[in-house]
Amino acid sequence: MRILMLAAEAAPLAKVGGLADVVGSLPKALQKLGHDVRVVLPGYGAIDWVRWAPERRTAFPVYTTWGAPQAEVWETDVDGIPHFLVTGAPIPMERWIYGRTIDEDGPKFVFFSLAALWSTEALAWKPDVVHAHDSHTGAAAWWLGTDGRHNPFFRDIASVFTIHNLPYAAQGAGKALGEYKLSRDARLLALPESYRDSLMGLGIVGADWLTTVSPTYAREILEPEGGRGLDGVLRLRSDRLAGILNGIDTDDWNPATDKELIANFDAGGLAKRARNKTELQREAGLEADPRMPLLAVVSRLVKEKGYDIAAPAIRRWIERGGQFVLLGTGDPTLEHEYAQFELRYPHRASVRLRFDARYARRVYGGADAILLPSRYEPCGLAQMIAMHYGCVPVARRTGGLADTVVDAGDPGGTGLMFDEFNPWALWDALDRTLKVYAQPAQWTELQRHGMTHDFSWSRSAREYAALYEEAVAARTRV
Ligand code: GLC
Fold it and tell me: Are residues 336 and 222 in the same domain?
């Protein structure tokens, strides 16, 4: 199958969050299954143009109510996958990926979505399926499902739209929708009024098939709490909604070969892991005591990840003899709150308010446990990476966390789970963590189960491929 992926981020070219990891890995896994995959991204200034040296392939105008900005399409190769970058006036060349307002991002992503689709015709490479990721590409799924259905080139191309994070819906994009003359089809009426000008809403009603990144999140978004007003329309479309779990790139994330670790290890030789912990304690300025349980946070520091309720429980963890390392940036109030830990608990807590991909690897490879108290979590990649590195997740049972972590009390346990979103439930899980940690044999079991679980992309890629087949078959029947 010929598969065209559209996204706002793809590692290693442009990365803000987990979306980039998914769009960086899934194409490779699909290619391994024999598919012909191409990726299209906006050609932001944030991409290292010198390093990737893309070649100009084609250019064409995109008609709007105010003129016809030129789209230029550039091609580069990333690990054997052709990647196309779209540039043009609505996509600022400054070094950022997301702008601050929908007035910037609306036109930017609508222009990108349309140009990305139309580049396939300009390059005479017709995809069987367009796989559009998250709100930024919703206009592509919408155009294919409306005007594209009257276009001989695009008529029978199937579309799959993946929701990575529903609340980031890109609402208020009405001006851009008007300017780019996207048709106002009756299907919009299935959306609540506040979502009729949202790029996420367009994707949801426009695509042939919808997916989200875990089976549990696929169920949660059908309920008012998870659906945020979109649950009704999602219920209407639930026969075309699938939850497919993300994987991790196990070539890249491999504790047996990771060059950032002082000692490489695998599930059969967990004893070697201890050196990484000592090294991490030294690097973070903590007491180098191998018996002290070391808890980590590696995350964006935002409310949705639950760190606004975690501080009291982490204080208690430290007061009970634990250590704590944090790596991440985010909400200034939370940054401020966590910065206090280092002052209050010298040599017991280390807080690094920055993004550091290499240090993150040493944390996964050295910390005993990682805390993931998410309010909601479409999938979450950190828990999978952590388990793969023998770092035990302490996680809230929601979304993809519920689908990937097995509680220590259940057969094949890999972590410690809690249900209620409050500081007491969270502390309860940390308290249980201390108890299990005090039983080394039991703890090693948790680590082993996590490390030997298959989190690779191959299984998910097969599920996507099967869904594409179905979408294509349904499209060519109509
Ligand atoms: C979003 C979600 C996260 C998911 C990622 C990749 O960032 O918040 O849960 O893992 O997308 O799908």
Answer: no
Q: Is residue 10 within 8 Å of 249, Cβ to Cβ?
A: no
Do 422 and 369 share a structural domain?
Answer: yes
Residue 313 lies in a domain: yes
Write the pLDDT tens digit of every residue in 52-102: 999 999 999 999 999 999 999 999 999 999 999 999 999 999 889 999 999
One domain for residues 207 and 293:
no
Which residue segment(s) compose the domain that 41 sits in? Answer: 2-247+458-477
Atom index in ligand 1 nearest the CA of residue 17 equals 7
Q: Is the full-model pTM beyond 0.85? A: yes
- Express each pLDDT in 257-274 by its tens digit: 999 999 999 999 999 999
Phi, psi of 75 (to 5 degrees): -120, 135
Tell me the CA distances in angstroms from 357 to 18, 324, 354, 361, 409, one per residue in order: 13, 18, 10, 7, 33
Separation CA 171–CA 174 (nearest Å): 8
How far is residue 300's CA from residue 314's CA, in Å, rounded to a whole number?
17
CA triple 329-335-341, angle to 5 deg: 120
377 lines ligand 1 (CB under 6 A): yes
According to DSSP, the β-strands at 158-163 and 294-298 are unpaired
Please tell me the distance from the alpha carbon of residue 85 to that of residue 76, in angstroms, as a whole number.
8
Q: The CATH number of the domain where 206 resides is what?
A: 3.40.50.2000
CA 371 to centroid of ligand 1, rounded, Å: 16
Q: Is the same domain home to 338 and 471?
A: no
197 and 276 assigned to the same domain: no
Q: Answer yes or no: is 124 within a domain.
A: yes
Atom index in ligand 1 nearest the CA of residue 304 equals 8
Q: Which atom of ligand 1 is nearest to the CA of 246?
A: 12
Which amino acid residue places its CA nearest to atom 11 of ligand 1? 164
Ligand 1 pocket member 231 (CB < 6 A)? no
At 477 the pLDDT is 73
Q: Which atom of ligand 1 is the closest one to the Cα of 134?
A: 11
Q: Is 215 in the pocket of ligand 1 (CB under 6 A)?
A: no
**Maximum distance among all Cα pairs of the chain, rounded to whole angstroms:** 69
**Pair 305, 218 in one domain:** no
Is any ligand 1 atom within 6 A of the Cβ of residue 15? Answer: no
Number of domains composing the chain: 2
Is 213 near ligand 1, meaning CB less than 6 Å away? Answer: yes
Whether residue 337 lies inside any domain: the answer is yes
